[in-house]
Amino acid sequence: MLTWGVWLLPIMPITLYEAKISQSIAKSALAGMITWSISIFTYYLLSPIKLIFIGQASRQEMHITNYRDEFYWINIKSFLLGDFLGSILEWIGIAIIGGGIIGFLVSFIYLRLRKNLK
């Protein structure tokens, strides 16, 4: 449940707020897509920042202090094109579809309940 909660926590208030303001299921679904897409991008952006600037014991060759190593820039390029970009491209479709579904469901339930309570 904790794994799902991390992803549902930021999207629920955003899509609910959009549903309240715009009264539109489509705009709320779009807000969900954008929210999860930004979340995916920032999640995977942390990895190169951590490796290059902060450092990781198992990947010392990636730290910025090793920039004079002959393979440093090749390693960075390989990491950015492989792990970073590859992971984003792998998960962005799920973020768009999943964010749209969650945004749709949240706004649909909110608008339906609001209509029935009036």
Brief write-up:
With 118 residues, the protein is mainly α.
Oligomer state equals: single chain
Spans of at least 5 consecutive residues whose pLDDT stays below 50 are: none
Hey, roughly how much beta strand do the residues contain? under 5%
Helix share bin: over 70%
Mind summarizing the main beta sheet? none
Q: Averaged pLDDT, please?
A: 90
Radius of gyration, in angstroms, nearest whole number: 19 Å
Shape: elongated
Q: Tell me the number of helical segments per DSSP (H or I, 4 or more residues long).
A: 3
Distance between the termini: 34 Å
| Strand elements, count | 0
N-to-C SSE string, H for helix and E for strand: HHH
Question: Which structural class is indicated by helix and strand composition?
Answer: mainly alpha
Report on the structure:
The model has no long low-confidence stretch (mean pLDDT 90). 82% of the residues lie in helices and 0% in strands. It starts with a helix and ends with a helix. The radius of gyration is 19 Å and the shape is elongated. The protein is built from 3 helices and no strands.
Main attributes?
single chain, 118 residues, mainly alpha, 3 helices
Layout: helices, strands, pairs:
Elements: H1 2-22, H2 25-54, H3 72-117
